Amino acid sequence: DAGVIQSPRHEVTEMGQEVTLRCKPISGHNSLFWYRQTMMRGLELLIYFNNNVPIDDSGMPEDRFSAKMPNASFSTLKIQPSEPRDSAVYFCASSSQGVSEAFFGQGTRLTVV
Amino acid sequence: GIQVEQSPPDLILQEGANSTLRCNFSDSVNNLQWFHQNPWGQLINLFYIPSGTKQNGRLSATTVATERYSLLYISSSQTTDSGVYFCAVDLGFTGGGNKLTFGTGTQLKVEL
């Protein structure tokens, strides 16, 4: 298996623009997680899905952030409008229910200028 | 929420030395994982170890769930071991899906 695949790897955008991050989980995994990593806050969970349904979005910082999982093999994290404080590395991870080892993608480094 | 503390925060080793990294957590957990974040930012799975002891080459880990801690041992360290080591735990969720809470990490640098 190719592992968790994220795109793009790097994104530079101007403040106010919409940003969409993409994730393909490992085939057969039914839990998907979005994390954000910053120097100040470390690695923090934003939202997670189980069987394509959002279970806990309490980590989503504000209404500018939204996430979807239209099917078992694809998820998006959208920021609209983006702000410089959103600059971070965003990781997607997946795991299989009942065997909860999580595997991470390579991350998307987002810079908002 | 659950607290996850790692020590030491920073560590510098000479190549070939051994080290022990510690992870303390404040509540009973369903799962514990150790990760290595390499200098390129990639999070690499080291161990999935809710309890007991596991070994993988020069690395081994022990989790004592009843006492709420885990240890990661690195023997004969190499420069490629440099990076940040994270401990992450989850409390389990009966509805499925297990969200990880990460510690603040141990920054390791191995020098020649």
Strand content of chain A: over 45%
How many β-strands of chain B, per DSSP? 11
DSSP strand count of chain A: 11
- Average pLDDT of chain B, rounded to a whole number, is 93
Question: Which spans of chain A of ≥5 residues are poorly predicted at pLDDT below 50?
Answer: none
Largest sheet: number of strands, sense, barrel closure of chain A: 7 strands, mixed
Largest interface: A-B, 27 and 24 residues
- Beta fraction of chain B: over 45%
What key phrases describe this protein's structure?
heterodimer, A: 113 residues, mainly beta, seven-stranded mixed β-sheet, four-stranded antiparallel β-sheet, 0% helix, B: 112 residues, six-stranded mixed β-sheet, five-stranded antiparallel β-sheet, 55% strand
Description:
The complex is a heterodimer of chains A (113) and B (112). Chain A has no helices and eleven strands. Chain A is mainly beta. In chain A, strands 2, 4, 5, 6, 9, 10 and 11 form a seven-stranded mixed beta sheet that branches. Chain A has a four-stranded antiparallel beta sheet with strand order 1-3-8-7, with no helix packed on it. Chain A starts with a strand and ends with a strand. The model of chain A has no long low-confidence stretch (mean pLDDT 94). With 112 residues, chain B is mainly β. Chain B is globular and about 45 Å long. Chain B starts with a strand and ends with a strand. At the A-B interface, strand 5, strand 9 and strand 10 of A face strand 4, strand 5, strand 9 and strand 10 of B.
Provide a concise account of the structure shown.
The complex is a heterodimer of chains A (113) and B (112). With 113 residues, chain A is an all-beta fold.
Topology:
The complex is a heterodimer of chains A (113) and B (112).
Chain A lengths: L4 E3 L2 E4 L5 E6 L6 E8 L3 E9 L2 E4 L8 E7 L2 E6 L8 E9 L2 E6 L3 E5 L1
Parallel strand pairs in A: 2-11
Antiparallel strand pairs in A: 1-3, 3-8, 4-5, 4-9, 5-6, 7-8, 9-10, 9-11
Chain B lengths: L3 E4 L2 E5 L4 E7 L5 E7 L5 E6 L3 E5 L2 E6 L4 E6 L8 E8 L10 E2 L3 E6 L1
